[in-house]
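Escalated from tier 1: cobalamin holo job.
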Amino acid sequence: MATRERTKELIDGIYNAIIEMDEDAVTELCKTVIDEGIDAYYAVSEGLTKAMDRVGELYTNNEYFVPELLLCADALYTGLDILRPHIKSNSDEKKKQLIIGTIEGDIHDIGKNLVKIMFEAAGWVVHDLGKDVMLQRFVEEQARTHSDVIALSALMTTSMTAMPKAIAMIKAADPDVAVMVGGAPLTRDIAVSYGADGYADNAGEAVREANEMLKRIMK
Ligand code: B12
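Tier 2 regenerated the structure:
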């Protein structure tokens, strides 16, 4: 079992390698994480997700541009492919179900994919509708799957305005399903004003928020 210092060294290494777009180093480090018995979920949430959040900031500050971003995302997905099969799921409970997708008009899906992985890691069954998802698709998928939660992602101030309509359509068809929203331009206040039941500002928080949201709704 790796010591706390060794775990930190490897996770910091993954974080830096993603930001430096170094796929080979990410591969090496993620394999070492598994070999040394470090929790794969922890490596995804503390290494991969935090690195990609930082990459988004670098872009916003004009330190990185689109080519760098896409190379960072490639490095991220390389790491995910190695870590994902080793994430332990909570198989004792009845599996909860999630529908997730990036809203109509928006093709950003890196953050949505991270959120999806966190739910899969927590043992949920995830129905991923992808990106640029027509609003009616969420309603149809809910009629098919009877999921517990629907998670909507938006990365643009222009696309997020479709969320209140999506939530109204979903709730009209199934008043019992809980809807959560997320993505960089959103805040909890906006989420509430849209009629969402929950909001989280990062992938690491999303599963906890979903569980708390379900408890709130049951009361
Ligand atoms: C990468 C990127 C791209 C990539 C997307 C690749 C992909 N497959 O996703 C490419 C190059 C394709 C792209 C295209 C465009 N982009 Co762009 N892009 C970005 C960028 C730099 C980073 C986004 C990202 O991946 N961040 C990293 C991830 C990990 O973070 P995240 O997505 O925020 O997700 C985290 C949280 O928000 C949260 N989360 C996300 N979703 C959800 C959902 C739920 C339910 C929950 C709980 C949480 C949650 O958890 C995630 C992990 O912690 C942002 C700038 C930025 N700093 O955000 C611009 C940005 C979003 N893009 C922007 C624009 C304008 C565009 C384009 C229109 C550009 C153009 N003129 O063509 C097109 C979009 C076309 C379209 N119709 O969608 C603008 C949007 C401006 C606005 N109106 O708000 C931004 C803000 C850049 C800017 N500053 O101008 N883009």
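The first helix runs from residue 4 to 19.
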